[in-house]
Known about the structure:
It is built from 24 helices and 17 strands. It has two domains: about 220 residues, Aminohydrolase, N-terminal nucleophile (Ntn) domain (Glutamine Phosphoribosylpyrophosphate, subunit 1, domain 1), CATH 3.60.20; about 400 residues, HUPs (Rossmann fold, 3-Layer(aba) Sandwich), CATH 3.40.50.620. The radius of gyration is 24 Å and the shape is globular. The chain is α+β, with helices and mostly antiparallel strands and about 625 residues long.
Amino acid sequence: MCGIVGFVGEHKPDVLAAMTRALAHRGPDGEGAHIDAGSGLHLGQRRLAILDIAGGVQPMWDADRRCVIVFNGQIYNHAELRRELEAAGRRFLTDHSDTEVILQAYLAWGIEGMHRRFNGMWAFALYDTAKKLLLLSRDRFGEKPLYYTDQSNVFAFASETTAFRQHPALTLSPGALPVQKYFAFGFVPGAASIYDRVRKLPAGAWMTLDLATGARALRRYWSFELAPDEGARAADVGGYVEELRARLKRAVAMRLAADVPVGVLLSGGIDSSSVVHFAAESTNQPVKTFSIGFDEPSFDESPYAARVATHYKTEHVVDHLTLANAAGIVPEMLSRLDEPIADSSLVACYLLFRHVRRHLPVVLSGDGGDELFAGYETFKGLRWAKLYDALVPHRLRSALSFVAGLLPVSHRYMSLDFKVKRMLSGLREEPGLWNPAWIGPLAPRDLAEALAAPARTEEVYDDAIAAWNATGPKGDLIDRTLQFYTRLYLTDDVLVKSDRTAMMHSVEARAPFLDNDVVDLARRIPSRLKLHNGTTKFILKAAMTGLLPDWVLARRKQGFGVPVGQWLAKGGLQLEPPADSGYSIARPVLERMLAEHKRSAADHRFALWAQLVLQSAARHA
């Protein structure tokens, strides 16, 4: 795990060094650089040493010194790929570096061939000196970040936009449309970033830049597409159960491989408990597990995690988050966030990974389980949403939403008033906007007024609309919602949150549920086996029946949330309206929201938190 950076432009080694140092938290174990003055290519890397600690130094060259690479991530099937490449006559210099496997895979199989074979998480930049070709690549779900920009005759890329601030030719300023998207979703979806002229290399994509001609190409080599089985195969529940068990077990075992200690994040839910189960099966040593507790009981999962830890006899350690220490953690965490993301569980993740780093540098997580197997409360509500949409005239929906708004405000986790208000507010919109409306800081119809600027719905929500339509006209509500969560929420919220907060503490987080084989099976499982008779994650629970204790399987779903609504209401988190609103919620609207939230007249936790994060980003720009 590392941080990578580079640019093509005027020869400035001091600038490259400054850009690389800006990513020091991503790689505390080493620093490297390569500069080709003739082509203007500059490559930098900070290393977190996990695999082949002695031999995996970067930038790395192949044996014939044709290609050089800087790489962030892990190729989990590197050992089997190395055997295949060695059998084909490729010569390796390192003992077991996955970085060198990428170099040799490129030389043996080319761009398309290498991407078809990789199972892992990555962002890398590879330069072919013979072709004068720079290749940038990102893994299938975008677990590892990669931004790029083209300004003032400089093309630059980096793991975090923070590095761009160190180059004198590059500027970062928020864009009006990205800020609207940020308040609409709670994150900036797709290839855009919150900054003008800075983009993300899309998940599952590669880009080439010909340094001789300036020609550029961007190609998607993979995207998440549901392809549910039909006929007799679709009814073979037992077959799916056996296959899912085998694939998850192998995915966990692959991600335990490292030259340093590896642990597991444990919440006590089915996803993390499944990872702990297979980790315990894959090693003869006690598994190290980590969890976080809260002083607000409705958010606290630590007792469940402790019970699972006891069952599997893990070496379990817990840290706690209170209103008092949150007040000190939030400013520190937000100052290092890089690109704003309005997910309040960032706070808990930050504390959790800080806790992990005191013990070891690598952990496995349950990320991806909810998105692939329909685990969120939203999926349970789809049946009622469909009935409501069919039976309630549009002219009555605003009135019903207003009446629901009169319910007393509760800041407990997923309280009834919260779910009813969110659901009815979202159902005022067209079905393609339901999902962002349910999770976003601002409702679609409130964006223009709140931001004091025109907001074109089809432009702000184009990513959500595309995900909704990806299943075609026959797609059911479950599949349409799965597409939204896997393509957008997972890639641009969940994985960003995990990567940023883990790397703030130089921790590598690995997600077995995002293994190629697990995902390819999940794509084929019909939606009725993911949400079955109101039971979320039905097929995953069936697969883990007899392996996990019954009390884990029967436990009600609980997300990794924090009581930010309570903190804002009680003054534990301070938010003052900015003197110049700029790209933010308009001052009069923000003042009203703050007042209503503090006296419990309304619950504006999402919007207020999003504003707090954006203001922090502006202060540290």
